[in-house]
Structure formats: structure tokens, C-alpha cells
Amino acid sequence: MLTTPRTPEQLAQDLLGRRFEDLDAEEQRVLGRIASGTVIGQDADELAASRASVGDRLADRVAAIGGSWGFIIGFGLVLVVWMLVNSRVLEYFGVHPFDAYPYIFLNLMLSMLAAIQAPVIMMSQNRQSDKDRIAARHDYEVNLRTQLEILRLHRRMDYLLETLEARKSAEAGEEA
Predict the structure, then answer these.
(1) Which candidate, 11, 1, 9, places its Cα nearest to that of 152?
(2) Residues 52-65: what's their mean pLDDT?
(3) Residue ranges per domain, the chain?
């Protein structure tokens, strides 16, 4: 009778034909989960969210806002208004420019914004790449587990077919 292996070591030998110690850590973890009957862990987004610090969430929010069309259009409007307020045209209406052309203060503000925003966006990108690595490991585990389960089912089907054929042969031998 076919016995279902219950330990990761037995599964490694039965399904992969290798010793458990010879497998990499990912394969060992998958075999351990198959042997224990547990489902795959948290989703990559859930795992990344559970590990996120306040700074990580802030970086993601800044990157989401800074990389949007709303921000680009709004910031463009602020620049146009700044230039209008600080142009000589408005002197006719009694408004005196506080940052006249060539807009040195505006350039300073833009440089400071870029100096702060760029590293924050890079932090968010690094976090996204960590999320992608978690998702890739999760996908690999799902694929490996699926392949191993299909292998187990295939072997069970082979056993059942062999048993059925043996019974048919035994019944045919008794009738004769």
C-alpha cells in the first residue's frame, strides 16, 4: 500500500529524489509546509505593510503625490503665479516683486524641494523593490508547491491504477 510521506525528509526523497539537507532553504520551507499541511504565508503586500515604519509609509505617500499629474499641474500653476506676482507687469497695479527676475529665491526653493524629494522617492522605490522580491519568493513557493502536489497526485494515481490492474488480473485469474 502507498504510504503518504509525513515528514519533509520523506517528501524530499519521495518527490524530488534528493536528501532534504541537499535542498536549498526555499525548497526546504515548501516541503515543511506541505508536510504540515499549512497554507502559504501572508501576501507580499500584507507582509510589506506589516513591516513598514512611519517613515516608510511617509516615503510611499510622498512618492505617490510627487509622481502624480495633479502634483505636476498644481506645481506648474504655483510657478506661473510666482512668476506673475514677481514680474514687472504687476508693478503697474501696485504689486512689488519680492523675487524679481531671474527668480533666485524660487530657484533656491526648487533646489531644496528636489534635494529633499529625490531621496524620499528613492526610499519608496527601494521599499517597492523589497515588495517585489517578497512577491517573487511567494510566487516561486506557490509554483514549487503546486509542482510537488501534482507530483504527489500523479504518484497516487499511478498507485491506484496499478492496484486496479492487479485486482483485474487477479479476478481474471480466478474466473479462468
Answers:
(1) 11
(2) 89
(3) 40-175
